[in-house]
Write a structure and sequence with these properties.
The complex is a heterodimer. Chain A is built from no helices and 11 strands. By secondary structure, chain A is an all-beta fold. In chain A, strand 5 and strand 6 form a beta hairpin. Chain B is mostly beta strands. In chain B, strand 8 and strand 9 form a beta hairpin. Chain B is globular and about 45 Å long. Classes of the chains: A mainly beta, B mainly beta. Chains A and B meet through strand 4, strand 5, strand 9 and strand 10 of A and strand 6 of B.
Chain lengths: ~110, ~120
């Protein structure tokens, strides 16, 4: 099984450009998440989708939008990239309705905004 | 506010020695606690979790963690460290706020370096 797949692996943008980070999972999980990882700050939640058709803001949603395209796919869009959005972005999914099932992570997208 | 603290940025240990990576938490209600490991250029991998029951939880790769309610801690331990255990370790707690059933709050991470 592929698990959680993220594309692209690397991306360099100029300030003001837009892009979409793609995420797909093949585990039939209901919940999906986007995190960003910055040195010394751990992982911070950007947006999440508890189930198909729903999305909610996390801790740091400003400058981002998301789409839960179907049960498998959850994309993250940067409409106008800023240097502060330079980070490593992780998509994750979770199976089951309760909060005690673990997250499954993709391998990340390393984004640099110049 | 609910939070997780990992007080050590880095832990150094010799191969074969026991290791401990510390984590303390602050949540309202009963905590759901997790440990994840991250190897270079990879996503996080689940190691173990505490939901309820026995305070000593065993997980993958020989790791275990001890839940201590009075000290609000969930330290990760391994009796004998391997060089291959060198990685970044994250503690996380489920956010128990009413509208956040599905969110995890992560600590800042602790880099474990096991020297041969």
């Amino acid at each position: 099984n592929a698990g959680v797949t993220q594309t692209p692996k690397f991306q360099v943008l100029k300030t003001g450009q837009s892009m979409t980070l793609q995420c797909a999972q093949d585990m039939n999980h209901n919940s999906m998440y986007w995190y960003r990882q910055d040195p010394g700050m751990g992982l911070r939640l950007i947006y999440y989708s508890a189930s198909e058709g729903t999305t909610d803001k996390g801790e740091v949603p400003n400058g981002y939008n998301v789409s839960r395209l179907n049960k498998r796919e959850f994309s993250l869009r940067l409409e106008s990239a800023a240097p502060s959005q330079t980070s490593v972005y992780f998509c994750a999914s979770r199976g089951g309705p309760s909060g005690n099932s673990p997250l499954h992570f993709g391998n990340g997208t390393r984004l640099t905004v110049t | 506010a609910q939070s997780v603290a990992q007080p050590e940025d880095q832990v150094n240990v010799a191969e074969g020695n026991p290791l401990t990576v510390k984590c303390t938490y602050s949540v309202s209600g009963n905590p759901y606690l997790f440990w994840y490991v991250q190897y270079p250029n990879r996503g996080l991998q689940f190691l173990l979790k505490y939901i309820t029951g026995d305070n000593l939880v065993k997980g993958s790769y020989g790791f275990e963690a001890e839940f201590n309610k009075s000290q609000t801690s969930f330290h990760l331990k391994k009796p004998s460290a391997l060089v291959s255990d060198s990685a970044l370790y994250f503690c996380a707690v489920r956010d128990t706020a009413r509208d956040s059933s599905y969110k995890l709050i992560f600590g800042s991470g602790t880099r474990l370096l096991v020297r041969p």
